[in-house]
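re the bet — no i am not wrong, look at it urself. input seq straight from the record:
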Amino acid sequence: MSAAAPRRTLNRQVLADHVHEELMSWLIDGRLEAGANLSIDGIARDLDVSPTPVREALARLEHTGMVRRVALKGYKVAPLFTAPELAQLVDARLMIEPVNAELACARSTPQLVDDLKQTIEDLRHAPTGASYAEFREYWKADEDFHRLIAEHTGNPFILNAYRTLGGQVQRFRFFAGLGVTDADNAIAEHTAILDAFAAGDAAAARAAMVAHLNGVKQRSILDSAEHP
């Protein structure tokens, strides 16, 4: 029996998540080239699923900017961001995430502090190799840290704005073939944010997030130069 066969028995959400994860891997590792047309039926055949979870996965990826929908033509793989576009993306994050940190810190609980601490431990122990499969757990821990903060702002509109940016996944496209290049920096910067949360210092949490994103901006520009 093939490995794909049991997936048909999964519920709709789990199946859509599986397809999303597979497509994410293909996109980040460059198996789907920028500008390539994406056939929903072809992907469904390759993954041995119906077209429905493929459509749902592509719609989710569209929100991250990884794919683009073209009127009457379906989906295409989006190009990699240029260095100026990456800088603009982080500038947009700088409008949202420091506010997230300040609001979430003001509403923080011991559980949130523990959860943030766990994401940093996950970063420390996650592989950082050159393929998506090798740095997936690192990316997930990094995303979890920022997502947890956004989810604890108490403001669903800010949370939606954060989700729409898809900032983390766009940056991680540059790690394919390179591996994670800034793990030590990211861990130190996340720890500074965590320390502010543990102290209940909302202003310090905001400042630490600003410092982190400015660091991300500079490192992303360097990554893009190494991955033209």
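see?? The radius of gyration is 18 Å. told u. also The chain has two domains: 5-77, 83-226. so pay up
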